Amino acid sequence: MRVHVEQELLIYEAFPYDQQQPQNNLKVRFKKVPHNINFREKKTKVKKDRKAESGATEDSVSVKSRIARFRYFEDISGYSGVFICGPSPHWMLVTSRGAIRLHPMTIDGSIESFAPFHNINCPKGFLYFNKQGELRISVLPTYLSYDAPWPVRKIPLRCTVHYVAYHVECKVYAICTSVKDPCTRIPRMTGEEKEFETIDREMHFNTLCILTAIHITCMFYFDKST
């Protein structure tokens, strides 16, 4: 349940509640959902000799406040929900398990209008107008899963991960991994030179492997704060 009250958005999630309830009461309770959606725009300083212009600006703001902020959509990249327009645009998605997920879309600033859009060149996409009045036609990346609190993409590494480090400036996770290679030669030092001796063992001994290769892999992870 969504409630828009004086530039403030309230979201409540319903859940069943059946503990010694009278017959006339609904067996439902509501839980408030925390979010960071802000409908208040930053105010600019206006000089005294521009009172007339400021009055016109206030009128335009009051008109904007009456515009519907919630835009319902179905089957945008397989998801249904509500897009919340305004200075802090958000996706409110319903997952396959019925959970609600809020994902911000800050790539283009404030969004004034939004609508689903579908054709051959933009299958199951959407379009919107930003604050500059520019029309954008876009799609949600299908390689990402939006069922988690953050958009997630699974990448098969096919190796063992040992260390993970985050680079703040580039917003990149560096992953140190290792793979197993069969060892068929043993190095032997003969004076100042190094020679390799080939090992000829039985089949069951060949299962012994050593870690001989270490690879560094960088994987991009979408930061929700940006």
TrEMBL record:
Organism expressing this protein natively: Notothenia coriiceps
Domain RSE1/DDB1/CPSF1 second beta-propeller: 7-139
InterPro entries: Beta-prop_RSE1/DDB1/CPSF1_2nd, RSE1/DDB1/CFT1, WD40/YVTN_repeat-like_dom_sf
Name of the protein in its database record: Cleavage and polyadenylation specificity factor subunit 1-like
Gene3D superfamilies, sorted: YVTN repeat-like/Quinoprotein amine dehydrogenase (2.130.10.10)
Transmembrane regions: none
A UniProt-annotated Pfam family: Beta-prop_RSE1_2nd
